[in-house]
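Q: What does the assembly look like in three dimensions?
Context provided by user:
Components: three
Sequences:
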Amino acid sequence: MLPGIPLFPEQASTLAPEVDNLYFFVTAVTAFFALLVVVLVLIFAIKYRDRTGERVGAPITGSIPLELGWTIVPFFIAMAIFGWATLVFFHIVRAPDQTLEVYSTGKRWMWRFQHIEGQGEINELHVPLGRPVKVIFTSEDVLHAIYIPAFRVKADAIPGRYSSIWFTPTRAGEYHLFCAEYCGTKHSGMIGRVVVMEPNDYQAWLSGGGGLSMQARGEQLFQQFGCASCHLPDGSGRGPSLAGKYRSEESLANGTTVTVDDTYIRESVLTPQMRLVAGYQPVMPTFQGQVNEEGLMSLIEYIKSLPSTRQTAAAPAAAAVAAAPGAPR
Amino acid sequence: MTTIVIPRVNYLNVKTTVASWLLTRDHKRIGVMYLVVVALAFFLGSVFAAGVRIELTTPEGDFVSADTYNRLFTMHAVFMVFFVLIPVVPAILGNFVMPLMIGAKDVAFPTLNLLSWYVFVTGFLFTIAALALGGVDTGWTFYTPYSSNVSESNVLLAGIGIFITGFSSILTGLNFMVTIHRMRAPGMTWFRLPLFVWALYATSLVMILGTPVVAITVGMVALERAFGFGIFDPRLGGDPVLFQHLFWFYSHPAVYIMILPPMGVISEVIACFSRKNVFGYSFVAFSSLAIAVFGFLVWAHHLFVAGISPYSAMVFSFLSFAVAIPSAVKTFNWTATLYKGAIWWRAPLMWVFGFLGLFLVGGLTGLFLASLGLDVHLHDTYFVVAHFHYIMVGGAIMGFFAGLHFWWPKMTGRMYSDGLATVAALLVFVGFNLTFFPQFILGYLGMPRRYHVYPEEFQVLNVLSSSGASVLAIGYSLVAIYLVYSLFRGERAGANPWLATGLEWKTESPPLPHNFPETPIVNEGAYEYSKREVKVA
Amino acid sequence: MPNGIVAGADPHGHGHHPALQHHFQTLDQQHEASTLGMWVFLVTEVMFFGGLLMAYLLYRVWYPEAWAEGSLDLDIRLGGFNTVVLIASSLTMALAVRAAQTGAQRATVRWLLATMVLGVTFLGVKVIEYAEKFELHHVPGANFVYEGPHGRQVEIFFSLYFGLTGLHALHMIIGVGLLSVITWMASRGRFSTEWYTPVEISGLYWHFVDIVWIFLFPLLYLVDRAHHFA
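A: Here is the predicted structure of the complete assembly.
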């Protein structure tokens, strides 16, 4: 499939037209100024040409109104672009509340995708048409970046942190998936495709694979590692209850607070003593080396699913403290 | 033509032994010595670029292996950035003409100036050693943890090379700053300074404040590699993105080290060949300082997709738009300078026109990348590659050539062929656009940078780009040929072949060993063309 | 415009101060240039240390416990002793500059020697501290061992400890080298009340290196002492 010379990328997500409209606007504005200057330079250079080299130019040294004009006008134009671009950006980084979540791990030089229902795939990502999808990912080794040009989204994969992108596909088809952050020898081989399917086809595809859902897999790990013996649901165990804790504020032994998010859960499994919840002893062992990135993501998915059965007494009042600094990004 | 007086003793013939060059403390000779090393680095960097462009003519990786390709683009950038773009205008032209322009006998610390050159060469040799042992494959940005924990190439040696070279830059900046403060001739007040001197002053500021940070950052990576220290190591809880912050805190301002001095050159050449004052002198002067200062506040626009908070991204985006304004002001002022001038079409001016065209595109496409919503899509694609080549090659290198053609008669006492120089400027301009304009399109299509193999549909544009690169190569070779030829057969230039104002034209060509027979006294601004009667010599 | 001058001849002729370099007009101009040069150099040094201090600051905010633990492992008595030594050396350096200013040649040499002795003492103590860290396997790298809940982050602390103090020690070594040249020049009577610029700018450098230590000592040794000794 070699469709001649493409000059413009496909638009296959709801974000793509937003980004493209901005792109056309900025192109128009900059082309205008570029042409303005080029035309003026050419006119002046020809009109005032002196073949002898002997004459002198007019004694003009400057003009304050002009200087102010061409400082202020470009400034306001720049601000207009800035404002528009920032709005688009917030659409790109802020996922809607209800999204289909897919987890992913990058390692040299492949992407693994893990669907919540249990499907796993490598260098391919199947998603349904018309539904917002959020991909949550990290890296096992060096920096990578997930980049899907047709959707106009990109974010770096950083070891030790979770990043995410979201998009709502608007056209069924296959699209490029690139690693956009240089990651060594086969960087350009770390590519794949995103397959956007009709919702029915997607359902069929999902049920075709089998395997445990991430939540079930997480529950399995939760039992297997013996997490359940301390993290009792009613809060009476040696560790805090995890029921309904996802996205809640927790106060820590060192006096600060933290939002229980993906990164904090990951950190607590790997380095439990780093940021201990207030009121508990540093007795939890590390699971570094025993659980891989996918296992971690499954555990997170499981903890997310734990319902907030009742208001446990352990939730301290300090949680109300204003915006916590959050996990180290 | 009246007879041209050739100085019996000038800086070139006062002593001619090799030792007299290697131990010289004369800023003019040191400038020439930088020219030699930078030309060598430029040649090396171009060879690597040629390798990259040949590989990219086909979508498959069939010319070199992936590993070799990665080393090619890394070494291309390392040589071009640290050994060409950063020193090219300040260390060559700045060293040569700045003391002349302010009527000084030399820079403030001539021995230190020579030391800077040796430090530069030492860093260069380390980098050559890294190259000889197989090169580096991290990309010139040395992002951790790939550079610190994973890469098996010669990161340590190249890092040491860059660390050392950084000190050459720091010492040059220090020397220039003190020179401009303390060595001006009587009557050479701040607002009579040529704009090139203002630009160098602003550049020195960046060199002094920025370069030490990248030196210590590269030093930290070296400690990680050499001794297993862990400062950016995610396995210890270190933050690989901290490296990016520290790296770009220097490396973004470094772009202004590359572009501010050529901007200064442009002001000089435009004023001379339109026989006018530079329009809005003080606005042009202060815009250099504004760029130098704002340049330190925009580094995180390289990290918009690296997981920084959207609000800090917003602030850095705003500041990045702000830094565009002084550059726009300069461009408008240069254009206005041409208005009602008496424009003498000579080769240096043709290079300036080339600069204006390319810098405009480079600067304006910067607005795309400063726009948060667009940068998510464009970051790390060929759009970025095209953008910074327009600034660095289209801007800095075109500006350098404008300056080199302008001051060549002063440096060598000889004229080159004006016709050939005009043809070369045109070739470079056309070749450059052919090479890099398609890359904007490739970038928006989504082709990531640093890709050894790529999807087929990108091939046509890549072939176009590679063919442009060969035109570019012809253009640069032509420059080398006629300039070298002029050394032997060029007409004698005389003290002031362009009938320019400026103190450097008031001494002989080539200048005397101590620049001026006696210290000049200045009583007017830098570009008082209209007050003078200009006559052909 | 007269064209050409005789090469090699003194371009200015006649009896200048022997220390005046040819490209300066006056000794004053030369002095001002040198001093400004050193100040600018010190600014670059601030930025140089600044990169490391930025990393220090970030990780200290992220890992306060690891910082407290790592800091407690440093020997506060040796660090404190070294702080006193360096403050004393700043005094002797200032006295050396003062002596040079008043033309007291022997006093200049004496105070410079005292400064160097104190500088070497500091470095000697630093060697003892480093040796101890080495034995305890607290040097980051493959042999690093640290028991405790924050072991990994403590390794970052020690990376920065060695980075910062190592860089500072390197500056001390350069400083001692610089002072030995200046002392030699002073003992040969090169300085006078008219011209003592090298003593003065070496002093600026020495004071700067001292000040860096004044920052490093609390930042590295005193992170959380109050909780443990109060």
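Follow-up: Residues 215-320 of chain A form a domain with the Cytochrome Bc1 Complex; Chain D, domain 2 fold (CATH 1.10.760.10).
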